[in-house]
Amino acid sequence: MELIGTVLGFYLPLLAGFIYGRFFNGRSFSRGMSKITLYFFLPLLLYDSIARRHVDFSLNMYWFMLFFAIYITLISFIPSILIFKNDRNLVMVSIYINAGFLPIPLAYSLWGAEAVSLIGFFILGQIIIVNFIIPLLVSSNFVDGFKRLLKFPPIYALIVGLISSSFNLLPSPSIMNVISDLGNVAPKLALLTLGADASGIEKLSWNGFKVAFIRIICSPLFTVPLLLLLKIRGLPFMVVLLESMMPPAVANIIFANEFNLDVDKIANAVITSTIIATLIIPPIFFTFT
Fold first, then answer.
1. In a 3-state reduction of DSSP, which class is residue 168?
2. pLDDT of 55
């Protein structure tokens, strides 16, 4: 029964967003929900997840998460270049993954808040590497990447959470409870947003299937051997494996607009691969967890 509740808790918000997007303005809804989640609810969730746990600055699993975020991004270049050659649109889509919106609600449903704190460090590593690699890949401009890094709210939540955890500087329990309650809204809003995004696609893209192959098959094949070599087990293993299989980030479309790339090609590849991943990945983890 607990498994059924977890599955329903994941797919029902996804379905609700899809239905809403079909009957109303899904794109407008998606943009609004993305902003409020990114700028308000997600930072609260990340802060709460990290601040409640003691994080020291030794070489522990949190820093391994940051390392694997950079590793997975860089290693994804190999299959993406082999498959897409010089098509920078699809190479970008293949390496810039959905590190937060999709894995957070799934991991939270399966493993609780501790998994979210690990994902927070993975997001930090991805933010650092992606915001420098992609501007270089598409425009050879590091300045834009650094400016985008400074405007990304979750990174400040991670920093403040680290300081609060390391020096035991927490707000009062009543304030922490409010932060926790508000932060817990983020996973459901992320699923609603993802469902609304998926509702706008008219037909699946063949490039999206190729991207899904890179993300769901190739990336874990490069990642699991290193996890085993470093003897990482338990929850950190599962979270890294989950992240290695994630589809592209919706934010790829933002990069496409800013750098005058092929927006339609990128949007179709992102949505198609996300639909495939949403149908395949959660049942795998629901079954084996």
1. coil
2. 60
Return d(Cα 58, Cα 55) in angstroms, integer. 9
* Interval 133-143: pLDDT, tens: 776 676 655 67
The CATH number assigned to the domain with range 2-288 reads: 1.20.1530.20
225 CB-near residues (< 8 Å, 6+ apart): none
pLDDT category of residue 187 using cuts at 50, 70 and 90: confident
Average pLDDT for the chain: 83
- How many other CB atoms are there within 10 angstroms of residue 225's CB atom? 10
3-class DSSP assignment, residue 3: helix
CA distances from 164 to 49, 53, 120, 271 (A): 11, 9, 15, 37
Look at the block and give the residue holding tokens 């874990």: 220
Whole-angstrom Cα distance, residue 36 to residue 17? Answer: 15
The whole-model pTM stands at 0.74
HSE, side-chain direction, 13 A CA sphere, residue 120: 29
CB burial of residue 231 (10 Å; 0-12, 13-18, 19+): exposed
Rounded distance, CA 225 to CA 240, Å? 12
**Separation of alpha carbons 48 and 54, rounded Å:** 12
Helix, strand, coil: what percent of the chain each, to 5?
80, 0, 20
Rounded CA-CA distance 89/211 in Å is 11
pLDDT at 245 over 60: yes
Contact 269, 207 (CB under 8 A): yes
Per-domain boundaries in the chain: 2-288
Element (H, E) at 8: helix 2-23
Average confidence (pLDDT) over 115-139: 77
Banded model confidence at residue 124, pLDDT cuts 50, 70, 90:
confident
- Amino acid identity at 253: I
